[in-house]
Amino acid sequence: MTSTVIYDAAELPDCEPSVFNDIQATIRLFGGMPIAIFGFITNVINVIVFCDPEMRCSLVNHFLLVLSISDLVLLVCNFFMLIFPVIASMSNNYLLHDYYPVFLWFAYPVGLSTQTCGVYLTVLVSVHRYLGVCHPFRAKRWVSGKPVKWAIIGSIVFSIVINLHTWLELDIRSCYSSSFNSPLRSIVLTPLRMNSKYTLITKCIMYTLIMFIIPFITLIIVNCRIVVALKESTRMRNGTSMKKSTQSRIMNNFRMLKGAKYSELFGRFGRLNFNPLKTPSLLKTNGNSLRDRSVTLMLLAIVAIFLCCNCLAFCNNIYDNVHHVKKHAQESDAFNQTSFLPEIEEQSQDYDEDWSIFDEWTFDFSVEISNLLISLNSSSSMFVYLIFSSKYRSIIKHWLGLEKRKRTNGVALTTVMAAQKALELSILPDEVEARRHRKEKNRFIKNSKQLTKSTQLFLTTSETDLRKAKSVRKETEDDEIQEIQSDEPSAASNLSRDDQNRSSSKRKLLRFATLA
Q: Are 163 and 112 in contact (CB under 8 A)?
């Protein structure tokens, strides 16, 4: 492709003129170009903001960072796929006509890969938020830095692998341009891309299944569950606010009783600032719950924009697939029939005329609008972040000089996050249950060991040992009687020592008695 080859003008085929109708040229130049330029600027800002150390603390922002990079690359590829060929065909510059096929050949597979990556990153963000809202205890245990990193890498690798075949669909060949009187490079479809079976498998089945059906169904189910969980949370929060209003009414009643008989008692009670209905857990989690709620609403808005902007492309894809399947079925039937060739050509011409009635204007307009909406989806995420993310707003205000930024201590923030993580893990129901089982198991093992020692001691003690124990006990009692008789004057002074000896003797007697 890059080698320089000298061709004879007679050997080269004539270059086909670039076919862009008025609808395509108008929408791409006056609609697609401003959106592409604006989206390029906003996504560069998004990438810079999400690379900030304060934004990297949240795992959701890792997904949003890679999603912004994917949108940025997609907008660049859309420019070279859709807008740049129109500009080149309308100009009289030889270099633009010669180099736009090279950009188109490279931007086509890269753009499809980044579009797939953006779709599945949106799905991963929704699943991540679903785990955080509907299964918070499992999310604290499962969703950490390494799983998030592997999920992002997996989506990128999957997007590249699933679109490897698109590198074989376009080819660059030389042709002779009569307007420039010199050879030019042009883009053509390969025989693989023109194969009807390949198109049926890759475009009609695989592309529709991977790019539309699986993501759309997953996003709809997951986000419906998130909306239901948010409604339940709102209902519980309203109940909590009613309790708080009841509590404030009770405290007001207590303050009104200060002038009564027991006003001094109520005054002391009021100075204690005792609040029995307000629990520390609510005070602790109120800020975190509001922050999680804003993040959830932000991701719901991103998913809603994604679904709205891709619905038209989904409908166009279904309509194109139906047309392709009907055409493929008609060609197969015409090939299997034993009819004359003029009749087959007449049937195909009738089918093309029926299709061209709709395809002439409406379908081209629908396709261009769908491409415009896809570019708009990649360009509008900045507004969602500005509305729902306070950190994003504060960083932008600091750049514009509207607000002085408050730097946080990274070491202290990391320590607090680690302590909060440890506390949350320590009070999880699964962790408490496992800890209780471990304690019961250790207690059972300890009791079993003690029982085993007592049994072994009982079995190893013989009758001779018992006789010796009894004789030792008798000698000890005789010695104590003799000491008492001989040392009567000093009995009072040595009373404490005798009590200790007597208690030790009793312990020995009790021990041997239990063994007997």
A: yes
Q: Which residues pair with 170 in a beta bridge?
A: 189
Coil, strand or helix: which one is 135?
Answer: coil
Provide the β-strand partners of residue 188. 171
Sign of CA dihedral 214, 215, 216, 219: positive
Mean per-residue pLDDT, 21-49: 92
State how many domains the chain has. 2
Q: Is residue 440 domain-resident?
A: no
DSSP 3-state assignment of 1?
coil
Q: Is residue 437 part of a domain?
A: no
Three-class SS state of 181: coil
Mean pLDDT of the chain: 75
Are residues 298 and 217 part of one domain? yes
Position 207 in a domain = yes
* Boundary (domain end) residue, out of 372, 388, 404: 388
CB 135 within 8 A of CB 312: no
* pLDDT (mean) for 496-500: 53
With a cut of 90, say whether residue 42 has pLDDT above it.
yes
**Residue 426 in domain:** no
Q: Are 188 and 92 in contact (CB under 8 A)?
A: no
C-alpha–C-alpha distance, residues 394 and 397, integer Å: 5
H/E run at residue 184: strand 182-189
* Model pLDDT, residue 154: 94
Domain that holds residue 199: 22-262+287-388
Distance (Å) of CA 245 to CA 173, 220, 237, 249, 276: 77, 37, 12, 6, 13
Cβ atoms of residues 115 and 374 within 8 Å = yes
Phi and psi at residue 10, in whole multiples of 5°?
Answer: -75, -30
Give per-residue pLDDT as tens, 408-436: 555 555 555 555 555 544 544 455 556 66
- If you write DSSP's letter for every residue of 412-476 in order, what string do you get? HHHHHHHHHHHHHHHT-HHHHHHHHHHHHHHHHHHHHHHHHHHHHHHHH--HHHHHHHHHHHHHH
Query: Any residues with CB less than 8 A from the CB of 294 and at least 6 apart, and which?
Result: 388, 389, 390
Which among 146, 309, 153 is positioned nearest to 219, based on CA atoms? 309
